[in-house]
Amino acid sequence: MQKMLSDFVIGETGVVKAVGGEGKIKRRLFDMGITPGAEVFLRKKAPLGDPIEITIRGYELTLRKTEAQFVNMEVKG
Questions:
Q1: What's the number of domains the chain is made of?
Q2: CA pseudo-torsion sign 51, 10, 69, 23
Q3: Closest among 1, 10, 9, 30 to 18, alpha carbons compared
Q4: What is the distance between the terminal CA atoms of the chain, rounded to a whole angstrom?
Q5: The model's pTM
Q6: Residues 6 or more apart in contact with residue 10 via CB below 8 angstroms
Q7: Is the preceding peptide bond at 36 cis, omega within 30 degrees of 0?
């Protein structure tokens, strides 16, 4: 099943399928290590759902929901 990273629930794991967006936002996501094939685990969400904290490539990363909506994921198991 595919969905956007911004729609993940706490504890969900998936693999990045594609990164959307234009220019600066896409470059920023790639620079943070969010590239196709990377495994992502959603660790936490702030009380109002923004920002979210993920684990990717062995480190923790905090993203705004507006950034996470550009990341297309394949949900695992």
A1: 1
A2: positive
A3: 30
A4: 9
A5: 0.88
A6: 42, 43, 44, 45
A7: no
Q: What is the CATH number of the domain that holds 50?
A: 2.30.30.90
Cα-based torsion angle of the residue sequence 54, 56, 62, 66 in order, rounded to the nearest 10 degrees: -80
Dihedral Cα 36, 37, 38, 40, nearest 10 deg:
90
- pLDDT 10s per residue in the chain (77 long)? 999 999 999 999 999 999 998 999 999 999 999 999 999 999 999 998 899 999 999 999 999 999 999 999 999 86
Structural domain of 51 = 2-75
Which amino acid is it at 69? Q
